[in-house]
């Protein structure tokens, strides 16, 4: 159980538990959560419904570093598995969007990595063919990156604006060690 002062992730919002409100609404106890990266956002979550994966403690520093170190070896989303029956690029894009949504709904930072890695690889391929990133890929990459960076900022104790550079540097070092 969480208590006031704890840092938690509710769905995809990194929050501080501000208080436990007893018999707050319809006789039920609620957690009052204050989002750390969304100004003035307060969330009220029924205590008996506040269970993983919907509400969980933020990653520890050790877990955050392990996640970052796993990125170099992380799998991408298998586009070939999505292609059967997808006889148009639009249908493939729709299936990719569904896969991105499915991974986001797990509320797990580990499921954000394949989204980011897949979009990155797709963007490199498209760029090599003289094409731009798709709107769907851009939307989901930005969303996954922001969600992951919010939690990593808290877990690593660094400024939100410095997380991306830290992440890129650490992944590059991991890839260099792997070679």
Automatic annotation (TrEMBL):
Q: Output this protein's name.
A: CarD family transcriptional regulator
Q: Superkingdom, according to UniProt? A: Bacteria
The protein's matches in Gene3D superfamilies, at most eight in alphabetical order, are given as:
CarD-like, C-terminal domain (1.20.58.1290)
Question: Which InterPro entries does the UniProt entry name for this protein?
Answer: CarD-like_C
| Organism per entry | Enteroscipio rubneri
């Amino acid at each position: 159980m969480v208590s006031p002062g704890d840092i938690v992730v509710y769905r995809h919002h990194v929050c501080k538990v501000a208080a436990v409100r007893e018999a707050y609404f319809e006789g039920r106890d609620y957690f009052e959560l204050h989002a750390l990266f969304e100004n003035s956002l307060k969330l009220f979550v029924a205590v008996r419904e506040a269970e993983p994966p919907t509400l969980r403690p933020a990653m520890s520093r050790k877990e955050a570093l392990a996640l970052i170190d796993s990125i170099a070896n992380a799998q991408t989303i298998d586009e070939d598995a999505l292609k059967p029956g997808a006889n148009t690029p639009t249908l493939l894009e729709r299936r990719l969007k569904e896969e991105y949504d499915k991974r986001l709904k797990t509320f797990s930072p580990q499921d954000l990595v394949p989204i980011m890695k897949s979009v990155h690889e797709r963007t490199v391929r498209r760029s090599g063919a003289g094409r731009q990133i798709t709107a769907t890929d851009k939307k989901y990459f930005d969303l996954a990156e922001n969600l992951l960076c919010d939690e990593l900022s808290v877990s690593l104790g660094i400024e939100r604006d410095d997380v991306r550079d830290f992440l890129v540097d650490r992944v590059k070092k991991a890839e260099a060690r792997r070679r």
